[in-house]
Amino acid sequence: MHATVAVIGAGPSGLTAAKNCLEAGLAVEVFEKNNQVGGNWVFNSRTGHSSVYENTHIISSKAWSEYEDFPMPAEYPDYPNHRQLQAYFEKYAKHFGVYETIRFQTTVEHVERQPDGQFLVTWSDNQGKERSKIFSHLMVANGHHWNPKHPELPDEFTGRYLHSHDFKGVDDTWRGKRVLVIGAGNSACDVAVESARIAETVHLSMRSPQWFLPKFMFGKPSDVLGSRIPLWVPNRIRQWVLTRLVKLMQGSYKAEYNLPEPQSLLLSHHPTVNSDLLDFIRHGRIHPRADITSVNDQMVGFSDGKNGIYDILVACTGFRISFPFFAKSFIDFENSEKVPLYLKMMHEKYENLYFIGLFQPLGCIWPLADYQAKIAVQEIIGRYKRPKNMQAAIQHEIEHPHLPFESGSRHSTQVDYHKFRRDLKAALKGTGIDIGNAPEGKAGAYKSFLRVQNTKKAG
């Protein structure tokens, strides 16, 4: 049977999925809601559309974010902004001929698995006209940062409320306002910093302690510096070293910033990368607050007994993993503490279904999504063999995470960038594909990784 592949989404993961299909000579069609490629990196000022906000820069460095076979322009800074990244994705799609495969302004309404195992994909265009087509294989790359998870507030807040999903930036309507931001992740800290540039007061409410990493350490991007720790170093030692380093640079969270002290080592949960937050706290522009315990109109009470009156409340409380085109009886990971997929991409029951980019690394998704797409394509053309006992293989991954991440849906797709890259590379080796010793210009950063690989070969 001639393979035909449907790819849902033309964001960074969907683009590389289609690109790898084309390179293998597979027939592929991409379905994209927007009128441009890039997914969340296409800035759109209207609410209801999940996109970056106006001043967004990537939080992983260029060195660890670019596709390994398509470097970002040399003139790009260490942390490109969303306009540069969207232009990069445009060039990538055009360079590899992906553009011609994309159906823009198209919404996948539902996908049904047929009795013969193929997939019936039904979509609607921007005029509302529906069409359907059968595909032998399906690659899902619709992302996992678009379906907002709202907080369960004790009562209704009567001021202006929005989720980070709808935050596009601050304007004059924020000037002089009292702002409360809920959360301590990357979005929460970015929103707090942006708001503090113009608002009268900004308070940041966090339920749990959090580690905050600067974008640069000792003059180097933090992820570049972190990559220098060899993979053979035990997790506990690696975490201890990084924890001591951050504490040395930042001092005591409680004493210096009035922030709760993390009780776990760094990398036990996903850290927040922000170079401005701690400075803004020390300058009195942002004030940390405890967990919310009460809401009365515009007055919010906190677990430490403090309270405040706010004009704007921004909930930066994350997103749900969602596949609106699947029946929940078919696939539903929304409340999973661990997503049950082999290599974060293969379902134990369905050999022609792949999830590309459904993982959260301590680093960037895109280059590793490229590896996943390569594995999927190699299986489609018969060069990759998945484990015979998929259930056992998936369970082994769940029970042996790369790092001792704390339980909860927030870490359901968490991986360590370099260890996951190693796992994906090992899977590709069996197909005869060798990604190469190291991405161009990164041999130094991968020196330790290569030593481990060579040691394994020798053994």
Provide structural commentary:
With 459 residues, the chain is α/β, with parallel strands linked by helices. It folds into 2 domains: 4-146 and 319-458, FAD/NAD(P)-binding domain (3-Layer(bba) Sandwich), CATH 3.50.50.60; 164-315, FAD/NAD(P)-binding domain, CATH 3.50.50. Helix content is 26%, strand content 19%. The chain is built from 11 helices and 24 strands. The protein has helices spanning 12-23, 82-95, 186-196, 222-226, 235-250, 253-257, 277-282, 366-380, 390-399, 417-429, 447-458, and strands at residues 4-8, 27-31, 102-103, 107-113, 119-124, 130-135, 137-140, 147-148, 160-163, 178-182, 201-205, 212-213, 216-217, 220-221, 272-273, 287-289, 292-296, 299-302, 307-309, 312-315, 319-320, 353-355, 360-361, 414-415. The strands form 8 sheets. Strands 3-2-1-7-22 form a 5-stranded parallel beta sheet, with helices on one face. A 5-stranded parallel beta sheet has the order 9-20-10-11-16, covered by helices on one side. A 3-stranded antiparallel beta sheet has the order 4-5-6, with no helix packed on it. The longest helix is centred in the middle third of the chain and has 16 residues, at 235-250. The protein is globular. The relative contact order is 0.15. The model is unreliable at 436-440 and 444-459 (pLDDT under 50).
Shape: globular
The fold-level CATH name of the largest domain is FAD/NAD(P)-binding domain
Oligomeric composition of the shown chains = single chain
What would you give as the CATH superfamily of the largest domain?
Answer: FAD/NAD(P)-binding domain
Q: Work out the helix count.
A: 11
Mean pLDDT, all residues: 90
State the end-to-end distance. 40 Å
Largest sheet: spatial strand order: 3-2-1-7-22
| Secondary structure category | alpha/beta
Which CATH architecture of the largest domain is right? 3-Layer(bba) Sandwich
Which residues form runs of ≥5 with pLDDT under 50? 436-440, 444-459
- How many DSSP-defined strands? 24
Overall tally of structural domains: 2
Report the C-alpha radius of gyration, rounded. Answer: 22 Å
CATH class of the largest domain: Alpha Beta
Share in helix: 25-40%
